[in-house]
Amino acid sequence: MAAERAPLPERFERPSWLTQVLIALFVLFLLWSMSSAGLSLSELLKGLPNMAVIGGEMMPPATDRAWPVAQAILVTFQMALVGTVFGILLSIPMALLAARNTSPHAAVRHATRALISFFRTVPDLAWALFFVASVGLGTFAGTLTIIVDTIGFCARFFAEALEEVDPGPSEALASIGASPLDRMAVVLLPGALPSLINSSLFSLEKAVRSSVVLGLVGAGGIGAELAVSMEMFRYDQAATIVLMIFLLVFVVEQFSSHMRRRLMRQNA
Question: Which family does the similarity line name (predicted)?
Fold first, then answer.
């Protein structure tokens, strides 16, 4: 007698009534949001000829200001690099205060995490406007913005990386009388180092892209050149700037990807 076959499991588990209600509410809210966002196919079709005209005026890209634009690109990268490095250096002590296994007290941990969340929640442009109003126009305001933004990004992931380190070696050192600083230097930071480097490389990519936008509000860099070109309807110059921005971002992303691949091979 052939053994009875067990019934096949359902492909998808039937959601509960509460889940179905939440999904329906989400769909309704999405439809409402689409109407509030002003999505309009007719307006898009009406704007396509204008896009074609602007695209035609961008070709060929202008080269009359290639050298000043290249200098502005270099300043943009320098601003992103300096802001990222200082932001990473400041993120490490904040992460040590925010991580559960390194923070000296729960109140300190919660306060530090709240500060990190505040840095991350406020948009880049808001920080840029704040620093432009505080220290004036220029790259210093942009660098300060990138520092704060990098802290909000890196400190959170640094803290999580520290919490994921195997507690065994740290507890063994504590049992023989090692101080918390010794355990941080010998076990926790080296154990979390691959994740710290990975987050740092991502933050550099993010800073390069952010630094382009910061120039639009007077925080220095290539964004100011792009804004002036668009305002003067010099779309050929704008095309040159966009191509140089693409080249900068592409080079930084390729370098970051190469370093991450090397890091993964070393840890394999």
Answer: Belongs to the binding-protein-dependent transport system permease family.
